[in-house]
Structures are given as structure tokens and as C-alpha cells.
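Office hours follow-up: a student asked to see two folded examples consecutively, so here they are.
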Amino acid sequence: MTDTCDFVVVGAGSGGCTVAGRLSEDAGTSVALLDAGGRNDTWRITTPFGLALPYAAANWAFDTVPQKGLNGRIGYQPRGKGLGGSSAINAMVYIRGHKCDYDHWAALGNAGWSYADVLPYFKASEHNADFDGEYHGKGGPLHVNRLRSDNPIHDVFHQAAREAQFRIREDFNAEDHEGLGSYQVTQRGGERWSAARAYVAPHLNKRPNLRVETGAQATKILFEAGRAVGIEYVQGRQTKQLRARREVILAAGAFQSPQLLMLSGLGDGDALAAHGIAVAHHLPGVGRNLQDHPDFVFVYASDYPHFVHASLGRLPSLLRGIRRYRRERRGVMTTNFAECGGFLRTRPDLDVPDIQLHFVIAMLDDHGRKKHKEAGFSCHFCLLRPKSRGSIWLKSADPLAAPLIDPNFLGEAEDLEAMVGGFKTTRRLMETPAMRALQKKDMFTSDVRTDDDIRAILRARVDTVYHPVGTCKMGTDAMAVVDPALKVHGIGGLRVVDASIMPTLIGGNTNAPTIMIGEKAADMIRGEVRAS
């Protein structure tokens, strides 16, 4: 079965939904959006509290290869599946990163990607209920606002920040973001506002030129005469093809965009040949340059009544929270769990913060997969600009097999030492009187005192905070996969529009930057269409 449209977008995550939604604004342009998952329109997705409930249908739930820097442990890599991608299962924190991150991209040779260049696209995407002015947008499809959980823990967290002599920051997305405070979230009226709800769902029955196919697993890019002309995919038990008159746009994320490129013959020629894959174009950077934020979590048991726990003793408050949510769309059901946090420098000589904190109103052990009888809270810190570089490789030529994921966490000694500084800086906050008053038991770090103790527990417990990027790097060097227009080097009619194009990891959460990438890509594509 074959069909044709102007653009075929593979992957309905933050980049894919954005670029598909924007391109389909032109009634004369036909767009098909494919995703292997489902619609993601259930209450488990739209209710923020649903983040705490396992929902396998919306999560690829990948694992890493054994990590040498983590004592050989296998890490966990949740990735969103279905409309919205990871924006349908993330903690909804709205962070753009520091302006220096984008200026660095431009300095690497990526013209048009400085902070001044990308700020208009952040603003175009945003409808911010709380802030406006030079750094914020009104009227965009992505709703951003303060939390509606009404949890008094925010006051406690702010008090602890003051006691630790950290500044209080109200807006983390303006000129500077150093300091601690309460996060804004991608919600509307107390409901999760994923990229799909922002850019695709409002138009499903209104734009005949926008076609969305779910349960559609892309297996191969189709080429003719050095140009991408379509996608082969499996839907149900059928193998189908969608052909693209103008472009194929990959937006399958930092793991699956390079995987699909390699399955289609784009990548390191020797590695592809080892799997019996014919080389369409030797592109050695595909799958290289994987970067992610290594993350450590402090965990404490607590009797504080406003922390979330699924015990029978907390059941009445949860039931009251459900009733309030139904009436007002406020209260505990609107929580993103990581309600507070911020950005800190571990050394005074640093120009910008090098760690980010996420303060969570529940005990979080092994990504929430290990349960405890007690209620409590957690505080993450992650290293924002690690030196370690990992990679993605094919496990086999089977397009339905998961890729081999190697973040190479703490692979560089410099990252381990920076994480030691992050541990000490975060513990400074945890040892303030305001935080001490909450703690009944330190679950994992009470005996950690020396630098060697810190290094040992970091290797024993560090894992991802869900921000993989970089595996289809943007640039002009020999290891770059796409150029600054996001076009794949050496192949016509093919772009990548997701977090995999980031040449370096930005200092913060990656959802908002990926949506920005989708906005900028759509603008570049429309400009080329007009000029043709």
C-alpha cells in the first residue's frame, strides 16, 4: 500500500508535532505524521498526577548497555511513545537552558542558532500566563504557567534556599537562571499540555491536509537517486509506504532517529556492513556524540503531610485531591512532582551554573520503580554540561529491535569530580534547618562523608534525568550528520528535527528547546518552499 503527500514526519514527539502542526497551517501543503504509539489522549496522560502511574503503552522503556563508569550497571531510559512523545510522560518543567548554550552552537559554525536567533522561536511557541516582555510569548500553542498544586512545600523550599544563601529566582527563562525557586510547567488549566495537545490535537478534524497515523512503526527510509522519497512502515500486520513529494522529516528522538538512519543505510559504513545493511551513504557521525545529564537523587523519609505516597494512610487526602481536581482543576492531581528546583554553580569561578536541581514531593528510588513504605521526598541534582560522550548502535538489522544505548555516564574523570561538587552543593541545601525539619530518615546518604564516599555512591546510584541529545549532530565537520538547516549531509529531501541535532547538551530540560527546534525548522522549510 503506497500513498503520497508533501512531507512525511516520522515521530510525533516534541519536534515532530511542532513541525507537522506548523507546516500544516498552509492549506496547500499536505503533511503526514507517523508514530509507533497511540493517541495518548487518556486521563493517565492528561492528568499530571498520572506521571506516577505506570503506563507501558506510552513508554519505550529502553535500557542502556552496562555502564563502565557506573560499576557496570544497566541504566534505564524511558522515552515517550505515541502522540506527544516524551512531552506526554515528562515532568512538564518549562526550561530553555542558558543563552550561552545557543551562542556556543553558533560558535561551532551553526549560523542562525545563537540565542538571539532562537529566542523568537521560543516566544512563538509560548503562551505564558505569568510572564511577558522581552523573553516571553503570548498567544503561542504551548501553554506555560505556574503550578496549581497549591502545595505549601514551595514556601519551605524557598526558606531553605535562603538559609543556604542561594538566591531566589522567579523566572528561570530570562536573562539569567542562577538560583532556586518554583518551576513553571507545560500545563493548561491544570492539565498536561504536551506538544501533541499544543500543535496537533486541535487540528485533527479541522485540517484535511494533516494526516496522523498511530501504531505506525517506521522501518526504512526510501531512497531514489540519492534522495529520500518516502518511508516504509509497519501498521498492524501490514507493511506500507508513504511517499514524500518534498521531504522526509525524522523526529523520532535521540535514540530512534539515528537508529532509523542506520537501518536505512546512513551511518558508519563498516558498522552497517557488519549487520548486512547496504550503505546508501557513509555518514560516520550517525549515532555518535550522545550526551545526557548524569543525575543523582537524595531521598528522605518524612512525616510531612503534603508529600505524595500511595499508602492507605494517605488515601483520604488523595481522594479529596481527586474530587478537588474534578471541580477546580487544582490541587495535588496537578502536581508535576518536580515542583521546585533551579540552577547552581558548584564553584565560584564558573561563569554559569553547572548543576540543576529538581525537588520532588515523593520518594524517588530507581526512577520510582522501587517502592518504600514511608512517605517522603527527593532532591535530584544533575551535571548540566558533561564531558562524557556516548553512542547509539544497532543491535541487529531488525527494525523492531531496540537500539544499543551507551550514554557513557561518568566516562570522563572530570564529570565524576564535577558531580562530587554537585553532591556537596546540593547537600548544603538539604542540611539547612528548613530541610532538616522535614527529614525523618536519610535513605541512602547518611554515612557518606568523604570525597571517596561521595564518588562511591555516585557510581552506585547515578543514572539519567531523561535528556538524551546529540546523536545526529548539527554542524559542518566530518562527524556532523545535519547542516544548520537540519538537512542530512549527502542526501536530498531528508531532515532531522528533534533533540538529536543538538551539537552540545543545553543546560536544562530539553522539551522546550526541542519544540523551539521544531518551530525554527518549520520556518526554514516554509522559506524554502516560498523561494522554490
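And the second, which I mentioned at the end of office hours:
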Amino acid sequence: MTSAPTILATCKQTRFHLLDDNPSAEVDVEGLGITVASPTPESTDDSSKSKLKGKSKAKAQGKELLTDAHLRLKAGIRYGLIGRNGTGKSTLLRAMAEKLIPGITHPTRISILQQIDGEYTAGGTDGLSLEKGVLESVLSSDEARNQASRTADLLSKSFETEDPIHPVRAIREIRHEQATKKLFLAQKMANLKSGTRGLQARKDLKAAESNLETSQEILNQDSESIDADALQADTQAAIEMLETVQSRLEAMKLSDMEKEARKILLGLGFKEDALEKKVSTLSGGWRMRCMLASVLLQGPSTDIMILDEPTNFLDLLGVIWLENYLQAMSETCQTTILLVSHDRDFINSVCEEIVIIRDQKLNYFKGNLAAYEQDFEEQKLYWGRMKEAQEKQVAHMEASIRDNIKAGKKTNDDNKLRQAKSRQKKVDDRMGLQVNAKGGRFKLNRDLVGYHLSSRAEIEVPEDERGASMSIPDATELRFPGPLVSIEGVTFQYKRNDRIILENINLVMHIGDRVGIVGLNGCGKSTLWDTMGSILWRSFRSGERGDPSLTALALLMAEVEGSLNEGTVRGLLSSMGLPGRIASDVPVNKLSGGQLVRLALARIVWNAPQLLVLDEITTHLDFHTVTALATALSSFDGAILLVSHDRFLIRSVIEGKRDIDHKLDEEFEGLEEEETEESTTRRRSVYVLKAGKMVEQSDGVEQFERSLVKRVQKMLNTG
């Protein structure tokens, strides 16, 4: 049986003790390295001995995601974690939540909503109780409260009997459980540390083992052998612990928690009558909302709250509500928020600072995403101009050097040869960065000290941190003129006396049209697609994997049935961001969520359809890839029908607008390009599907967003 990949985390700051009872609310870990290692069968033998000695070997065999990075999170700040797919965002979050990183102590309270193999889990909670109602399950997922309740119940029941031994047994059972936890942490510390600190950690481990053995002996002690002093001391300790735990439970105020849980669930889209439904009856998307609710409920009592793609199953109303909730939460507590999202508008609205995973390092920017992108472009322009000017200067100096050498050799002029040598030294040593690390002017005698430094660092122009580009084939020409879609007066209901799902739907689309449809969950979008199924012959459906044992190349080759040769199929997959061995060697069930989206796109565009129907296509894509996708779709000469909660994608692809806050690729073709061309302007329309009716928005998605903002404000004010 193959073991799961192991996360190996190291850092310089192993002096921190995992059992520190007063940890800092901030995280400041230097020299962080994270490696994902797939253990080989040989590595499982004598694993206890090889954990320390074989650490460097295991690290070398794994995939390094971070090297000598600096993890720095300040209390109460909302951070957005960005980086291309595969750079290690989810792995870093998991390493933090599971406290695999030395320097994040065990008492640090961390709650996390994360994705593992496409499934959501909620860490830092006791999980959802599938057979309980939605509201009850969310309330019972509070790990700290559950532990306090279990302790209080155990102690309370022990005092309900007349046997004086029962409270003693109860307090000793609790102490034994605590000793077991301390042994686990001591083992963890011994595995993490080496050298002098490792020696002390192993001494602590022996002490913890001895403490657990003593605790076990005391727990197993016969009632007759417990003397009066021990009986009195343990009974008094049980009384004091019960009072402490009961006070803690009273401070938690169950009634207030229930009110807050109800507010969160309603904000995330649950109806009042759905709060009593069993969790086991819910779909995966609604269970994810329950997990998100449980993490949000514990937010004020945690030090760090981590949210990995929390907007994936939310409609736009839920996204806007979550934006407002997270902003309001940071005003009342000092919880640090670290989130990952493909939704540009969501990150821009929520996050105060940006953490960028790039070149196996963590970089930081004070400001939201829009400010970061603007600053990045300014830095790229600044350093680009500086490098260009310096290259011209170097070219001039090198030409002068060649002339001096030529003239010196011809006339045997040693002065010219010395001058050429001096100038060459200046080119080699003094050309490079003109500023020091503090931003001041570079001085050789101050900033270039040390035997290992002989020249200035070269000027490096920042490169765009974007995902692989995408390219969509042009649509085939229509054999006959006319609309691609023509629907008039469509009304639908499942039974004659049931409510009307769709009412008087009209939609006509021609080649080149751009139509976007937005709406809340349950508004009838899925029914509309099912009704139009006979017309929309090429559509994107997230989660369509085909045969998961095949590679992307084999799967697509089987679907084209000889219409395209292997080279053409490889080229198509590469144009979608699935190049080389990723396409030919990796089975579909091993592809990431973002790679599956790229494969799904390749499967619907290989025969150049005239109409693309895209349903929530941005799920699992990082926002760099979303930008590349928007650019590819903008130049597609066929028609596009897009259903999405992503405001950026609707604005760019359907409305053809270049956002002020979000820079698009130069190849993007929108309204500005249409105005300069003589061809007919595309039809661009955004519709809202509400109560079965489709209403066009004169101001596009912005009009729909404004109406939802008002609704969210009303919900929060009455909540």
C-alpha cells in the first residue's frame, strides 16, 4: 500500500517550545523550508532512527516548495496568499494548520477550511455530525467548547454519586489524557530538533514517558490503597477544575453562539427551514458551507483562521456577505486571517496585505491586490528602464575598450592598454545595482564589503507571475446564416400545479455574441441548461473527468476518434497549459483541479465549435490563470454563453471592460479594440435570472452587485 506524501518542514527557529503556554499571537519563522516527499518502501524500515539522520536525504528526494523563506504574520491582519497553481499554497496552509512548522506552538489556535483531493475539510473543529441538523452540527463542531463540555460532564457525573472515589477517578482520567497529549508533543519535538536542542528535547521526551507511566499507575490504583490525603487532594482538584470549566462554558454563552451560527448560515445561503435538515442529506456544496460556517463561528476564539477557496460554492450574494463578515470580524477581534481565492474582487475587498509565493520564497506587500499589481507594474517599468540605460552605457564602454585595445596594440601605447583594463574592471565590478538594500545610493566602501563580494549585483527586472497562457481555436464558419440559439417564450414547470421554474424565457444568440447570466443559487440556472440541452451541443461542465485512469492525451485522442493526429492534440493540450509529460504521463485522477479545468476546455474546443457554454469555469484556477483565460476568451470569434459568480470574468469576457484595478494581458480584445476596428461591434449582454425570469442589466454585473450589497447590509443590520 502506497503511503501518502509527507510534508517535511524545517526552520532556523527551533528554539521555540511546542508546549509554550503563552505563545505569541504573531507568527515569525525564519529560514522556513517545506518539502513534499513521497516515501519509498525502503524508507519505512527503521523509520524511528532515520527521522533525524535521513532528514536531508528525504528532503532531497522530495519536491521543494519553499527554501529559506520567511513566514511572517501579524495579529489581526487579513492576508491574501497568491501564487501560481503548484507553487505550494495549499501545502503551506496544511503545514501551518497541522503545526508541522517548528515555531508554531501547539497552544496556537488555528482553524482551517481546506481542500484535500478536491474535498473540503474543516480543521481545528470536531467535524460535522452527519446525523445532526445543520444548526446543531455547526454548534457542536466547536472543538474547545466540546472539550470543556466533556470535562464538565465527566466531573459533574462523578459528584452525583455517593462514592467519594468517583471524583478522584475522574480527575485522574483527565490528568492521564493530558499526560498522553504531552507525550505526543514531546515526541514531535524530539523529531524536529537536533544537536544540543535535540538532546534536551529527548530528555523532555523521557520525562514525558515517565510522567505517563506514573499517571497510568495512579489511574490503575486500587480504591482501597488510596490514602486519605490523596483522596482529599484529588477531590479538591476535581472541584476546582469543575468550577473553572463551568465558568469557561458560561463565558462562551451558548445562546449567543446559536444566534451567531444562525446568522452565519443564513448569510451563506441557507433558508430558515433548512437549518433542521440532517447534514447527511446535503450535497457536497452545502456541506462545504456548513464547514465554512463552523470555521467562521470559531473565528473570534482562534489566533489564525485559514480559508482555502471559501467562495467556490457560494453565489454572488454569499460572496459579498462573506466579504462584509470578514471585514467586520477584524474590527472586533485580533484573529489573523489567511485566505486563498481565485476571485480577484474578493481578495481585493477583504485583504489588507498580500503574501506572494514566488521562486520558493515568501514575499510581502502592504496593500490589497490591486495596489500590489500596480506597484509590480511600476517596479517592472522602473527596473526595466534602469537596465536598458545601463546596457547602453556598458555597450558604449565596451566599444571604447575595444578601440583602446586596438589602438594600444597598434602603437604599443601602454597608457591606452592600462586605460582599457581599468575600464574593463569598472564594467565587471561597478556596473549593476545603483542602490543599496536600504534604497540609498550605492557606495563601494560601505555596501560592497566582505571577501566574497567582488562586484555589484545585477539589475533584475521582475517577471510577470502568470500561469501558462491559453489559446482557443477559432470557430468553424457557419454553413448557413442565422442564429446559433433562438428561444422564445419558454416556460417550464415540473408538474402542472407546481411553481413555475422558468417563465417566458427569450434568448437569441448569433456568432460573436457575448451573453452572461448571473443569479443566486436555486434561481433556475441548471433547469435552464437542461431545457436548452438539445441546442447547446458543446458546453463546459466542471467535474467531467472521463476515464480517470487515462492520461489527458489518451483521453482526448479517444474522443477525437482520428479527426486529429497526436501532434495536433499535443499542441492543443499545450495551448491550454497541459504541456509535455503532464499531458502524456499523468493520469487524469492525478491532475489538479486547475489542470482538470484546462483538460475540460480542450475537450470542448478541439472541433472548433461556434458556441461555448461555460458554467462556473473559474473553480480551482488561480487568478493568474483566470486572467489568461479571460484573454483567450476575449479573442474567440465564436459566441460565448457564460454563467459565473466571478465579477471580474463577467466584466472582462462579456462586457469587454478593462478593469482599473486588475491589469489584463496586452492580447486582450475588448471594447477598446472593437472601437478601433471597422467590423461590427459584438452584442454584449448580462442577464439576471430571478424568480424564473431573465432580466437584462443595463449596467451589467455592477447593477446586480449593487442590489446584492444593499441586501447584505440589510441582513447584517438585522442579524
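Two things to take away from it. Residues 6-123+303-318+333-367 form a domain with the Rossmann fold fold (CATH 3.40.50.300). Confidence is low (pLDDT under 50) at residues 42-60, 534-545.
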